[in-house]
User: Fold these one by one.
Assistant:
Number 1:
Amino acid sequence: MDYDHARHAGNAGDVLKQAALIALLEAMVRDPATLTYVETHAGAGVYPLGSAGEWGDGVLRVWNARSGLLGRYAEIVRGFSAPGATRPGSVPGSPLVARALLREGDPMVLHEIDPGSASVLRRTLPRADVRERDGQSGVAELGQTRAFVLIDPPYTRKQEWTDAARAMARIAGTPAALWYPVKALTRPRALLQELAKLGVHGVAVELHWTPLRLKRDRLNGAGLVLVGVPPEAIAAICAALPDLGAALQTHGEWAAIEIGF
């Protein structure tokens, strides 16, 4: 697989995904029952940053946020850099953001197929169950466990869009979020159609920080398919979109959309 988590760490897509993850887990841990956090493509967990990178258009833009959902996200991210730092020295991946929200007794099942990343992840989160395998097939083993699943493949191959939809269909009844990139609308809309065809119904929330009429080599935006999650979490994510859009926009405008399917 040619996707490198570290090269993209802290980009705008991560900011949207991880801020939304905070809203989702904040809502789910209000239930006193144990919650198992499951991720399909966990990466190494934490990423040191160089002097420049995609993080400059992502986490750096929200570094000083102090209020609302964006402020809670920025506070977690600032915890991975030296006190008083004016820019991030390293950024957490989704598993470390999730760990900050989960309770002591909430287990983590993290799939990472790359041996090197899996080894780092085991050291970063020694109490997590790190499984060196394809996460999209592994989610089918959840059984009756109360869980939340984050499906976030790299989308380096077209087939991964279909595989992601099938993975979500295999865990029907389990609260889940499926992250996807937006460079054009063709594949994202085909993803929603495929999910509906498979009997999966939920809400998709998208943020476009670069107008789609301006094609770029990098992301124009990203989205999350939310299925079976608390309604208050969706409301919190949508309420944060103006702050996220204003912070991440690249050409003086941004757009957000909520799609029920």
Note: The mean pLDDT is 95.
Number 2:
Amino acid sequence: MQLGAVLVCDAGPLLLRHGGIDVERLRTYTGMRIAAVSRARERRAELAFGALEAFVPDARFELEYHVRHASLPRPGDDRALKRLAARIFSEPLDPARPPWQLWVVEGVDAGRFALVAVCDAALVGPGSTGDLVQALLAREPGPAVATPGWLARAGAALQRRAVAALSPVRLAGRAMAGALDLAESALGGGDAFGPGSGGALRRVDWLELDAADVDAVRTRLGGSERDVALAALSGGLRHLFERRGAEARVLRALTPICVGGRSAAPRVRLPTAIADARARLVVLRGASERAGTPDTGAEPPLRALASLAAAAADGRRAELVAAALPALAGEPEVAGAPVRAVVPVLPPLPAQALGVTVTRLGARVFVGLAADASRVPELSALADGTASAFDELRRIVAEARVRPAARRVAKPRRRRATRSSEAEAQ
């Protein structure tokens, strides 16, 4: 499974005289930082006649192959960046090389550039150390990682695979999930997004929300940041179905969370059939309370995304996956260039049509969307509908703030008018 992130940065010290970006400096910077990522210079290898997979050093590792350069057509903007990111995430990584790429994208607009990081989940999965995005954002380069020999790593991989495959709890959970899915199918639950081609073509989009507005909605109407994002997404999906001329349906979303140090993927029904924005949030808030409060930690973004995606891959049937990641602390930068946006990208799992991420950076909350292009080709319409649904929640909060003051002013005026009328009558 490939996942990654899109980072938008101010050029800062990387801006060249002719207006371009110092790509060579970024390549050198990346080469130093990946020393903290154990598998960044390793490739997959099959052992025991293909029965076991392990990572071994790549003798022909080339940094230039992994750190690539692209430019958007003028005039560059976010729309062009999203199209390029979709193409990058649609291309499979070379299995004969270390499973990651970092694209330096010029021409986003004046004074900005982007980094599109894509990697296999195994790069940050069990048995690995470090995180590609975290390594780039770290203030100081991490220490070089001393990795054990391939035999020790192969043994550890075999042990993890055996434990995962033979766990009675996991086997029982899969059997129960399968039975429930069959029951739902028998009751007539079809695919809300329609059949897809099963290809790798993706759509990528995202939207920015003001963190102060998100906090105001949470404080006034209740729920977590994830609940607010899911309520807005539910409104966006409702808008998408209306645009298609179809009846809005309740959709199933796997919402992977970490509780008590362990990842789980409770399934939540998104209330897309409910027209009222406040009612949608109330429904999701109740579902979140039943699932448990997620742990708030500082786990690196791609590592957190990989662990949550793994939990979702083991979950029950659903149309989409929505993962909330820990907020990024401080004011991150890459080679001295300030980072203004970080959008983790979770391409849809094989059984899903849509992958959604929610993360916070400073005063902004980013909602990332990645879809199977054959099933959700109009992803930009979903992003616009989600933004509109969030605006509905903001308006509800704004009206709730104004109305009490208006009532306090109006009531004394009516009472004075009543006393005056009584005096005239006497």
Note: The chain has two domains: 2-158, 202-402.
